[in-house]
Each structure stands twice: as structure tokens, then as C-alpha cells.
Fold each of these.
Amino acid sequence: MSIKKGTAWKFGDDISTDHIAPGRLFHLRTNLPELAKHVLEDARKDFASEMKKGDFIAAGRNFGLGSSREHAPAIIKLSGVSGVLAKSFARIFFRNSINIGLSLIECNTDLIDEKNEIEVDLKNGIVKNLSSDIEIPITPLPDIMIKILNEGGLVEHIRKHRDFQLL
Amino acid sequence: MGKTLSEKIIGKHSSKEVKAGDFVIAKVDVAAVQDGTGPLTIDKMSEVNLTQVKNPEKTVLFIDHAAPSPRKELSNAHKKLREFAKKTGSILSEAGEGVCHQRLVEDFVAPGNILIGADSHTCTSGALGAFATGMGSTDVGIGMALGKAWLKVPETFKIEVFGEFGHNVGPKDLILSLISKIGSDGATYKALEFCGKTIEKMDMSGRFTLCNMAVEAGAKTGIIASDETTKKYLAMRNREEDFKEIKADNDAVYEKIIKIDASKLKPTVSCPHTVDNTAGATELNNIKVHQVFIGSCTNGRIEDLKIAASILKDKKRNFNTRLLISPASKDIFIQALQEGLIEIFVKAGAAIVTPGCGPCVGVHAGILGDGEVCLSTQNRNFKGRMGNPEGLIYLSSPATAAYSAMLGYIADPGNI
Ligand code: SF4
């Protein structure tokens, strides 16, 4: 996990999986590249078309609440987002993201404004807001999840060990 | 030190003493996916060459979210589930058989079980005294193949309910008020253990409604001790032998205890676009309703339909309000037919929707128009939930929904 730099896109509290991957596009769930063109469309219409590979999402509380659809983190990852920073994450979304290798960073996103340049060093747990020149403390992930992320996700973990080797 | 229900069940399944905060690999008794999450589950399994499932008779694939299929992409997804079920010997629940969570409690989950399901409302089954939690396609796919999953043992909030519900006030009003109180993320990662005199007296239907919505407060599961009521329910499903008594220790350690007096509750409604944004039904008389939906894994059970029928008997829906009703499962549908409820609904002007998720997930059957208001008995009102981000969704009990369908605006059924 190297150091990543990118521009922040701000989102509010309670961004649900319906905002990220809406039910009306249910039929695209078997076509993730197509679904990814609509990522977060119902929260910010401009996001999917204007974001650049490597950008970050900086959201408020409870990001990813709602359904268990893994398609939600999958299309965020597929669209090229480097990671999601939020004040907190909903449980199933959190687990799904780590399983598929999407980086989530819990921190105080009030310290990030729209279009700020962000640098994330996941290995050492450091987030910097380069635009305002401040370091933002983060809540570390549980060990078990670091293990999964380091192996590239749960599928990779199982491919390697043919069983859980997490504890 | 005493144990909570979750600690007891997870401990049994990981063959060691566990306490809240521990990470374990636990044996899984039942695993389930639905047509929205199942195809990805199958893909994830084949990515790692996992072609078999550990317990075929306890692995269930549900065709319920878009059932019958409204378009070819979904028909192909359904095909994939059917073929997988055939190949692995897993169980397939076809279009028309019902919503996954209702089918799971009817025929598959037993007290003391661990259930993982690729659907967030998997927590519904916790009402049977099981540890039931929603996960994503990858977790459930691996769980289906290996028969186990990694879990963090949750801390528990004890929700103690006492007092009698008022007229036309019930479990849905209770859970909406609780979520409003603690917030849509107030119980993130926690288990909600419901107990107290009101819960002891509550039928299974009400208990399912409570546990179903635990996830709307961010919880990992809702859970209730099994008792005589659970036993009777299982006996009615011809599953008496599945009963096992399971309850928390008296000295179990809870992170928080929340006490609720049911007699103080009023008919409660969640307003757009979050579940914790509630108001009393009386305060919303000015909200005109274009569509009412009575159904879903939250409130599509026979008891819910009976309440709705008691209000709609010999009455008509408001001219400006369409009414959609979907029994949550095939067996509920049959019972509703036998008891004459369906006739009452159709005479009142309702459209009956195939048992399944129906309009709840916004794929088919009842998608809202721009600016339209829906009052639904489902569990979620997020923006875009019913297929249109320009729609406005309010949530309520079946009593409030039925009464409002009659009047054409959100109305308090406590006054009937
Ligand atoms: S009825 Fe609604 S909430 Fe329940 S499983 Fe179906 S889509 Fe999900």
C-alpha cells in the first residue's frame, strides 16, 4: 500500500447504498463497468462524469448505510477512487469494502474542503490535507482487516490459504 | 461473567468462550443470497474455484427482489441462480414464494443458529433467538463454500420494553421511535437485544418487525430470546424439533440499556429521506399520498394484513391514492385468501402484488413518479429507494398505511 495523492470530493452525512448504486439500475448489477458510470449519481450528479482516477471521497457520518450490495464499494473502486474518507462508516459497507480491497479511512473530514489535495499513507496511518497543510489523525483498522487489505481482499486471502488464516 | 445472547451463540459456534470485542471464525448454519446479490456471490466463488457449498440443504438462493423478472438482464441473473442451485444441490426459492427473510424464518432458521445472508435485513431471523447478520456477496460466498465466517462479537444494547401499546399502535411504531431516538448510526456494530414484558407478550410477527429494522440503526443484528411463543411459531410451521430455549444470562454485560414505555408511543412515521427522521402521524395530515404500499419483509405478514383489512373492510381507497399490497410469502398469501383478506383489499381498490419484495427496492411494481409521495410499511426511505430519486417515501405501520390509503393523506389510526 503506497502513498496516494488525489483531490477530495465532499459528500454529506448518511450517503446510502441507494445513492451509490441505485435500485433503479438493478439490472446493471451484472455489468459493473456500466453501473460504475452512475456511481453516486443520486448524491452528486457531477461526480461520475467529472472525477479523475486517484481522487478521494470525503464524506460525513455513516457512509454506505443501507443494503448489503457489494456492488456499491465495487463501483467506487472500479471508477478509480483511491479511497473513501468519512467520519464513520456503516457496518456492512465497511466489511464489503475491505473484502474487495477498497481503502476506507475513518477521520474528521470537517478538516477537508471540496477540491482539497489529500495525501494518504495507509501503511503508516497518516492523512495529510496538502491544501491546508495539516495532518489529520485517523482511527486505525482492526488487525484482521489490515490482514485482509494487505492480501488484496478476502478472495485473494482464500485463494492463497484455501481457508481463513486471519486470527 | 454472564453472557448476552450473541456471545452465547457465537461462542457455541467457535468452540470457545467469547466476549464482546473478540474476533472469531464461526461455523455458519444457514447461508442465503437473493437475486440482487447472488450472481456476484457466484462470481466471487468461481474466482477462487469454489464450486461446491458446504451444506446444500441450508444454502438458499432467493428470487424475490425482481420477481417475476421485469427485464432480460434480470432474467439472466435468475437463470444463473437456478443453474447454481441445481449444480450444488442448494435450495432455490422461486419467484412468488416470497421475500427471503420471511421464507428464512418460516422454514430454515432455528433458535441458536448462525445465519449469514447477502441482504442487510438478514437480522430479521434474530427474532427466533438466532444470530443473524447481513454481509456482502464475497463474505457469504465464502461462507457458503467453507461453512464458516469471520465475525467480531458485538457489544449489545439491551432494549427493555414495558407497558401496553395503545389502539392501533404496535411494533413498527416502537422500532421507528427507537431508531429516531438513537439515530441511523446509533447502534453501528452493536447487537440490539429486545426484552421486557411487552416483548414477552408480543407475537412472532411483531418480533420479526423489530429485528428486521435493527440494521436501520446501524446494528449488526437484532435478537430476542426464544420462548413459548417461538416454540408455538415453529410448531405451526411443523418444525417443533427445531425449538431450543436460548436466553441471555441475568448478569450479562450490556454496553447500554434503553427502556421504553410502549404505552407512551404514538403512531409514528419516518419522513424522507432517512429512517430516523420521524414525526407523529397526526402532525403529517397535510401530506397527500399518491401510493400506499403494504408489504415487505418488515410488515407483510398475516397479522399485518389482518390489521389493514380491519381498517379497509367495506371501505374504499381514496380516489387519488393507489394501494399496493403484497403478502410476504406464498403461505401468507394462501392464508390471506382463505381468511377473505384479499377480497377485502381488492374490493377496497388494491392491486395485489406477487409475494416478494415488490415495490420496496425500486426495480418494478410500483415505481414512483417525480414528486410523488408514497407511504410504505417497508423499512427504508432513502432517496431513490423506490426507483426514483424524485419520489418521497414515508414509512409507517400497516394500520397507519391502511387508514391513510382510505383518506388520501397521512392520518393517525389511533383515532379510528
Ligand atoms: S422487502 Fe425490501 S427490505 Fe425486505 S428484502 Fe425485499 S427489498 Fe429488502
Amino acid sequence: MPGTRAVSGPGVHLAASFSPERLGAATAITFALKIDPPGEAAPPPLSQVDFSYPANLGFATSGLGLASCEPGRLQAEGSVACPADSRMGAGSATVEVPFGPVLVEEHVGLELFAAPSSDGYLHLAILALGSEPVIATVVITGVLLEGHLQINVPVIPGLPDGPDISIKQISATLGGALTYYERVNGRRVAYRPRGIGLPDSCPHGGWRLGAKLSFQDGGRAEAGTAVACPARRSRAHRAGPGRGG
Amino acid sequence: MSGRARAAVVLCGCTLIAAGAASSEAAPRARSAATVSVKDDGNLHFLKASGSTLIDEGRATGTIPGEVKIHFTYNGNPAVSAQITIYGAHGTLEVRGTGHLSSPTNPNPSFSGTLTVTGGSGRYSHAHGNGKLYGVFHRRSYGMIVQTEGTVHY
């Protein structure tokens, strides 16, 4: 049930999915956002994305982010600077790099980590790594609020004296196939963190998710979607916090 | 306890102070009125989850010993909440608590706050009171260490 509303910016499409999707079980959540400017123009550079989701989804109780990664070290040293237990997900983005009159697309890998918190909320540091045509490492920060994941996008400079780089598409998954480690009888044992808990019940019309975008030029856009309720028979399997791994 | 880590709940030890001369033994035909200073503890392990609410259970020891079940809600806001039911020998005691969670990326963040006794059944059917709530939330196992202390009137 995707919907889009350009308040004063380009059109935006949001899609979301849960995998697996079983009531009361843990899941991974994928957001996919596409920014569609009218005509051939590049989208304006983003300044903030605010993803909204039902507050009773178990992001904070997911068991993700049991350690933190300092954004400064992430920027300087890359993901090797981050503890395995700080990894929260991964994704990709497509950006448009202006080379004179030509727009060149670049595919960028995203790695999501928990960052240190000074305010009690879970903070994120997202490493964006591009290699062709421009080698670039950008760290984007975000914060998990009650029912919101707010991501602040810095200005990403393009060529000297040229326009800034625009984000055209983002897709990111929180949770999924992550490997964490714990000490069991003095040994370091790998396990898979549980993931984001789905409630025991699904609201009429499914779980509604949204995205509000703010752009560096002051424009705004919104999009919404809903993840349909799972079939009732799926309720049989309920996941506990197994050792996994 | 394969796969499930333990939780420890701490409800604290207590001192019973009879209010006036009334007690259940001394005045069997009148509803007893007592004020109890409660300090209990216990161990809680993960039972199940529903979204941002974890349900743990275990054994409480102290002033009002018994089985304990807690519904602990943490939705990203460091202000957490808990609904606690103690199944004691003389009835159940219902408690609501709110607290503040210390650090979201600590594997075992602590929380502290206040609690309100909201009622119960049996001897505690008219219970009320308040106190303090402390705890540790084990983010890997979803177990908890909870400590309560306060005053219960019933």
C-alpha cells in the first residue's frame, strides 16, 4: 500500500518488508526509499530522513547493538574499527554524481552500527562506501526514537565548485544475518541476535510505516506504506532467544 | 536452561508494621489494615515477547515471596515501564513501575525509577502503596534482575 506526498520536494516512494513475518516472532525490517524528481534532474541533496513505524515493534528489545562504534573511528578506519556486536544491519544506496552536465550513478554500500549514546536513546552510525566513479567514505548518523528512526544526512560534496551529491535510492535492513559473540564458559561463542520483535497482534490494515524527507534546499516530501498482516497459521512458530549461530 | 539465560529479580526483605492493633489474626471479622515495608528480590527469566514488551517470570524472595511475572516495555525511549504481579501465599499483588534505562548499547543496562502498588487479590485486594524500582536488563538473554522496595498498605 505505497503512497507518496510531495509537500514541496520531489516524489518519494517507500516500501517496507519484514522477514520472516510471524506474529510474536523476531524479524528483520527492510526499508526501501526511492526519490523521483520530475524530469531528468537529479534529486535535491537530502538533509534528513525520518522513518516512522509502530512504536510497539521491538526495535529496542531486539538484542541488536550490544556494543557501540565511535563514528570518528568508523570514518577514519572503516568498519574494522567496530565491534561485531555493534553491527545492526546493512544496505545499499544509489547516488547521482554530477560531472559537468552529466549525472553519473554510483552504487554505495551501507553498513549500520550502534553508536555511543549520551542521552539514553540508541544512536546509529551508518558507513556509506562508494568506489566508482568517486571513492568516498561518508558516515551518516541517526537516532532511534520512540516509533521513529531519524537519520541526519550530511552535505556530500561533489566535484570542486560543482553541485553536491544526491541520493536517489536507499535500501537498508535492520537485523538479518548478523553474527554476534558472547563468552560461554570462557569461550567466545558466535550467535545470531534475535532481531526485531513483532507484536502478538497485527492492526487492521497492517503495520503502517512512513518516511518524511527534508532536503538541503528546504524542500520536503513524505511517503507511506503498510506491511500486510501475516496469515494466522504462521502464528504457530514463536522464536525465543536461542543461541543460534 | 538451554538458550535462555537467567534473570535475577530482586524484590527486597521487609519489615511488617501493624497499623494500630489490627491484624488478620487479631481481628478476623474486620478487614485487616497493615502497613508493610517491603524489600524483595528474585530471579526472572525470559518467557516470551510481544513487540517492544518482554514477559519474564521467576521467583521473588523477601517480604512477599512468591512467583513473579513482569511485563517490561522498552520501545526506544529510555523511559521504560513494567507491570509486575507477585503471586504470594495470601493473594496476588499488582505493581506498576516506571524507570529510566541507563545505556542502550550496554549488554546489561540498569534501570531505576518508582513503583506504585495498584491492588491485588486475597489479602492484597485493597492494597496500595509506592516505592522504588531498580533493575538490570540482560539484552542478550532478555532476563532481568529487579529490586523493589517500598511500603504497602492493605
Amino acid sequence: MSGESSDYTDSANRYRPSDAQIERLGRFSRRFRRNTKAMIGLLLVLGLVFVAAFAPLIAPYQIDTTNIEDRSEAPSLEHPFGTDDLGRDVFSRVVMGSRISLYVGFGSIVGALFVGTVVGLVAGYYGGMVDEVLMRLMDAAMSFPPILLALTVMVVLGPNLNNVVLALAFVYTPYIARVGRSATLSERNEAYVESAVSRGETDSQIIFSEVLPNTMAPLLVQASLNIAFAILSEASLSFLGLGAQPPTPSWGLMINSGRGFMESAPWMILAPGIAIAITVIGFNLLGDGLRDVLDPKVDAIE
Amino acid sequence: MSRTQHSGEGRIDGSSTGTTRESDAAAGDPVDPDGPLLQVRDLRTEFRTESGRVVATNEVSFDLDRGETMGLVGESGAGKSVTARSIMRLIDSPGEITGGRVVFDGEDLLAMTEREMRGVRGNRIALVPQDPMTALNPVLSVGEQIVETITHHQGKGRKEAREQAIEAMREVGIPDAADRIDDYPHEFSGGMRQRVLIAIGLSCQPDLIIADEPTTALDVTTQAKILDLLNDLQEERGMAVLMITHNLGVVAQTCDTVGVMYAGNLVETAPLDDLFERPNHPYTRGLIDSIPQTERTYDELPTMDGSMPDLLDLPEGCNFAPRCPHATEACRTGGDPDLEDIPGTDARAACIRTDEIDLSESTADPVDGTGRDAVDRSGEPLFEVENLKKHFSAGEGLLDSLSISWDGGPSIDRRSVKAVDGISFDVYPGETVGLVGESGCGKSTVARTALRLLEPTDGEVYFDGEPLHELGSTEVRSLRREMQMVFQDPGSSLNPRKTVGRIVGRAMERHDIATGEEKRERVRELLERVGLSADAATKYPHEFSGGQQQRVAIAHALAVEPRLIVCDEPVSALDVSVQAQILNLLNEIQAEYGLAYLFISHNIGVVRHICDRLAVMYLGKAVEFGTVEDVFSPPFHPYTESLLSAVPHPDPTRETDRILLEGTVPSPVDPPSGCPFQTRCPRKIGDRCETEVPELEAVGDDGHVVSCHLSVEEMSQRESFVATEENPAASD
């Protein structure tokens, strides 16, 4: 009976994963690795994160260095994605723009997760009036087309990037709440919840300590799928002029600026457009793959 | 090619696995009407899992004659369902049938095309699946589901098929078949649904029916009726039946021959009487011994050590060797023994020591124990429940639970499910009180309401004098320390995302009993006390077997040092050989810690050995309450009597006059007038039973109460089911 591996804290009471938890992680990563969708998605997302993290090092030019002489030049060795109508290097702008997309994507989803999870779990656990009221609020928020809702919030708050994150978090909270609520509904009738009640746990202890860990899987899947939407929404909002303001190299803004040049300098639209597409595909694949891995029908032997 | 050897009544094929096949009838030979209907040879089914290939059916071979009923017994995980489904080729990825032949009426099913198989399934071989709730399509009427099978296989027109379907429903005993043919599955009770499944199976007059645990999901009284039905039908039609079950009692009542499976292998086959009289494999002996007999008194229930091995981690040598009391070195190293004939009998066994050991005697102690110690009831009861009621509103939401009736003018009543309708009992320290009844009688609801996990509609509950029904929620929460619960399904009562150590330790933290290192130490001690190793604390629940999970649940209940533990069907979900282990553990712990138990079960046979007093419940009320001796010998209330008579005994020589109750349990939304049991009571006297609700009245002076209009003299003249000095058991 060793003191080391017998519990999840060692003698100095620091958190130390137990053997069982390590094995569980190992099983998860094995299954994940075998799922092609998840791996491709992960690759794309990691690529994006890498690019965003090292963006200033990757981008050869400043994003706002204008060079009117070289404007609207086709892709070349010097400018892999060409230049835009102000002579700025499109490649650098796309690379730097990845930071914005990631910031908005993660930021809004984390915000939505925080609020949505609490709302969903509380509604699912208590049921009755609490559930009704909370879910009607969520319904109200969902009944507006997401862009319209974000637009409204932006108009109130003022157009800048941080407000975009807030607005999108607000928009996506109901979707997370719904998933959280349905996961809670199926967990709350499980015997271990009753066991916790019979142990004398308070409601909040039960919701956050017992039920929440079992609802993580569908929440994470929903969140990762929503990131793609968030990034798209940011692009739309910026396209409409309500998100990032020039000269911020938001991909949506770049598409907006490039609208007039579709025939003469299509790379101004294509480059950021493809970047959005790849990002969205990456997150979608990752989310789908995660769902497969976390929710599989385990091989059952009768 | 020579014919198979037939030897007498049992007609078990004499060839053994792995040896030459010249003596087998080959597919393509002219069909011999006297030959076996089904010949399974070296059937092997494997499953691909993350951790490797699992052999669920390992070279299984047996014969089944026309008109014969064969039981396939084994505990969960033994491979019986897989074997049955392999015969019908219902195995899908990640499983596949990797070897063997299944010769049905002269043709090898494994060699057929899928199209040909579709013509066999449902038509010549029918499957009656296990769970009547999920096996029927909820959106199709039962008539449609039966007709579907008929039109598909027999090409008859819809009208003719419908007539045939009504006839099939009548044959399986569904009353008002012509009216009910268009009803949906949810409008039938569990027993009726099972009959519908049987009707679907029978609709095309198959030669073979494979019944997969046909009565496991049903109550004891319904089970008795379904088994009788199967017996009758089989005699009438001369069908062969392959009955899969883990219940030896069911086997004893219905089968001609028996096959015993363990960890994927068929370890014994024998004619029924031979199997029980002189089993040839130690596992069979152990299985038979594990079933506690209602007539005997035990100090400790007989058990088999250990549990079935994980199919991913089979032992070298004989799979049963680690648990076998007769195992030798040769057993442990030699590889799986072949299934071989036992000379002089019609049996086969897979054991290398069959000629050396004599298994005809039970290994259980032949001397009756003293049973349970007398309970000291001189002080105050620990737990008192008085006239407890719990009504749920029927229907969802506000409007659905109202019903309009038109006596003279419209009036609106609130419909409610009277799950518990006035029950009273008490539990003294150190005592075990049982609540027995069939599904829907309200016993689980009583337990939960008494613990205030549900709010009582009416009535009083006192714990150690404290009025539990009146306390505020904080006070109730702190009182929870004294009353703990062990749940029915250990798999779901333990949070799958927490390690065992955290689950057990959490209870200690919550009530400030211990923290930090001291808590961990105590958790380790507790786990060892319940029979697990201390390092189980770092594992997750799903890594344990059902029996071990239940031990964790017991450790969790003990962690707070309660005085009362409510056990809600704690062993119903476990295998037979494990049940006794857990029950013995519960008894030991009770003696050691001086606990009181409230034990809920539908298995009246088990209850006999655990409880000091018990209440028999029907439709939310207690119909009888008293000490175990008083209730069992003889049973006074007619319901108690029929419950006891319905239990299938694992003894083929024993003839019990089974009392089959008419009809089904009435709905608790609309209970019958007068005595709740009057709609089904075989001893109903007349109008009085319909108009007057019987009160619980004392019979004898030991606190034995019964609610029935029959006189005490009439009731005490029943045949007893448990032998005592004054009342010899019915079978004697």
C-alpha cells in the first residue's frame, strides 16, 4: 500500500493525477488519434494557433505599411498573396488577422460557456418554474437571427472588437445552455445524484461537483462547433462595418474592402476567404471528431 | 458418412469438440426426421474491442431435437445470448462468427446467404427477446407488428394475416384479442407485452424458438404464467425451444435438457434431472448451491468465491480453476478442457477430473444454522413510519392531471398516482425489516419518501424520535448522516467521473468526519472491510464488476457511520453467485456495527434469509406485516401465498401447486374499490371484498398483522412454504 499512487494528492498535497486518471487520458488520446476527422481538425486548429502565436514573426511586412506604387499587385514571390489596393501585403494581413479570429472565436465561446453552462445546468436540475423562466429567456434570445442580435448589441455598445466578443458571447449563450440543460436532464435521474442527495449534499454542490463533470462532453463538442460560427459571425460583422475597424486586418473587413476589386484583384477576397474557410472547417472537424470520440457506442459484448 | 450416435432420452450428440467430424451429419445429407433439429458444432464468435479480440462463444457444440426444450444457463457475460444470436446470425460488427457450423434441419445456416437467412429468421427460427419494453416498436400497433411478420414470410394478404394475428394473440392468452389488436405497446402491461412478443415469434409456426431471458424483466407472478404458457404452447405444437436464462429455477420448471456456459465455454450439458441430481462440473454444483432454499435456515448463505473472469484476461488452463474447490495443478495449466461424454450417462462435461470427483452432494452445510439472532425490541424503535402516503399527480403539468367526470353534472377531479397509500412500520436498532412486493407496489417509493428524498403527501416519519417530516432542509441534511441508502444499480449509483476513493471520501468530508490524510486512511480501511483492496481507491467505478461496485456503494454508505441503511434491491442486478456474497457482507456489517436495515426486494426467497420482520406490499399498501416465521409459515394473506407459490424452485422433482393469479396489477391511478387485491384474489369471498377496505388486524400476539376479510382460522390453515416444527413445508 504505497502512499504515492494511492490518491490524487501526494504527500505535499499537490495535485497529482492518479494512475487511473492517467490511464483514462491515455485511452482518450488513443481513440482520438485513431479518428481521422478529429486529427485533421486538430491539425488545422493547431496550425491556426501556431500562426496566430507567431504571427509577428511570420508576417514579413507590417499590416499597415502602405505602398501605393505596389498596389493591387498579383501574388508573387515578394508578396505571396499579392497586395491590396493600398499596397499592403495581403499575406501579412491574413496572418495577423488570424489573431483576431482566434481572439473572437475563443473569447466569445468561453464567455458563452460560462454563462450558458450555469443557466443550462440550473434550469435542467431544478426544472419547474426555474426551468421555464430561464428557457423562455433563452428562447427569446434565440428567436433573433444571430447576426441581427449581435448587430443590436453592437449598436448599443459601440463598434469595436471587444464588443464583438461580448455580443457574440451573448448570442451563443442560449445554444450552450440548451445543450447543458438536456445533458443535465438525462443525468439528474441517475442514481448517483440521488446518492449525493442522500449524503446530504446541497444543491449547488451536486450541480457543480457531481453533475457538471458528466455534462462536459456534449458541452465541449457544442462549444468547438460554435467557435466556427463565431469566427464566421465576426467576419460578417466586420464586413458590415460593425466589428473591427480599419486598419485592423480582420478577415471579414478585408473581404469587405476587397469587394470592389473582385475582378481586378481577386486575391484580396480569396486569401482571407480561404483562410476563413480553412479555420471553420478545422473547428468543425475537430468538434465532430470530438463528438465521435467522447460519445462513442462502446463495443459492447452481450 | 456415419450417422450421429443417439443415446437414449437426452439424445446428446456423443462427439466432443475438436475431434474428428466424420460422425456428424453433414449439410447436404438427406434430412432425417428423427435426427436433431439443430446441430451446433464448434461455434465460435469473436468481438473486436479496443483492448484486443474477445472470444464470446468458444467452440460451442450441442444438439437440439425437435420438440425438445433446452435451457442455456450461465451468469452475465458467459456468452449465452451471443451464442443464441450467432445461431440466428444476428451478430454484427464489431462481432463476427469466425468458425463452426450450425446445421438446422439439414442446412448449414452459417453457409447461407443473407437473403436466405432472412427467410429463416422469424419464419423457421423465431427469437423472443428479453426486454418487452424495448423490443416492440412503440409507434406501431401490436397488430401491425404481428401482421408484418406474417405477410413478410407467408405472403398472405393483409386481411388473412390479421385474422391469423388475432388467433395468435388469443393463443398466447391476451384477453379481448380482437379488440386489442390495434392497441399500442405502451397500453399493455409488461406480461402482456411479453405475450405479444411470443405471439410474434409463433406467428409463422417456427420449428425452433429461441427465448432470450423471456421472464427476467417480469414479476414473479407474471413469470409463472408466462412459463406455463410456453410449456403449453410447446407441447401443443411440438416446437423446439432454446431457453436462455440465468435462473435455475426457471430451468427446472421448463426444460428437458440443460447446457451450462461459463466464460464463453459450454462446460456441461445433461438431461434436466441428471443435472440437478448429479452435476458433473464443479461450476454447476456451485450454481445450484448458491441458490438459498426457502425452507432452510442459514447462518451464512452459501457462496462461490470470486466472480467470472474478464473475457479479455482469461486464466491459463481451465477458466473456472481459480474458483474451483477441486482444482489441481493440471487444471490450472492445461488449457480449456474439452467437452466430453460422461460414460454411462447422457451428460457431457468439460472437466478433467469428472471421473474422480463426486458432485452429487451439495457442498453447503447440511445442518441448518441458527438463523438470525433475536432482536432486542425493548427500547424505542429507531425508525418509525406512520400512515405514510405519497401521491404523484398523474400526467404532466397542470391540465393533464385533472379528469372530468359526469355524475349528474361535470366535476373535475385531480387524478393522482397513489404510489404509497398509508403504510406503517417500525425498525428497531440492529433489526432488518423487509419490504416485499412486485414492481409498482410502491416499495421503492416508501423508502425514498421515508428518507425524505421525496416529500411525503401525508403521514409521519420519526427517526430516533425526531419528526423527519417536519424538519427544515438544513436539519434534514445533517440528519442524513444517520440514514444512508444503497441503490439497486451499482453502476449508476456511483458517479462515473469520480474515483472510488473520492466517492467514498466525499461523504466523510461532507459531514466533517475526517479530512486529509486521516480521511484517506479511513477510506482504505473501509474498502478493505467490504472486501476490496485498498488500492481500489484510485480506480473508476466502471473498472469493477457489478458485485464489486455494490461493495463500493456499501462502503460509501458506511463512510458516515449511519445507524440505518436502506437497501433498495441491492442484489437484484447482480449474478446469482455474487448475490449471496453481498448479502453475507451486509449481515456481517450489521452485526459488527449494530446497524438497522430497511431491505427492499421483490425476491421473496432472498428476503427470508435477511430479514427479521417483513411487510408484503400491494398497490401502495401493506397487506401483511410480521416476523419472517409468522409471514412465511403459513402465509396468511392470499397475495403472500401466491407470491410464495410463484417462486420457481431449482428442483425439478418438486411439484408446487403454483397459484396463477388472474389479470394484472391494477393501475395505481384507479385502484379497485374495497380491498385492492380483490380483482385477482383466488380466495375472494364475495361482495364484502369489493365494498369494504380491510384493516390491518392482529393475528396472533407477535405483532403479526394482516388485512383481509377472511377469518384467522381460515388463513392459518394454509400450507406452509417454509418448514418449521409446527408447519412442515408443502412439498414434504
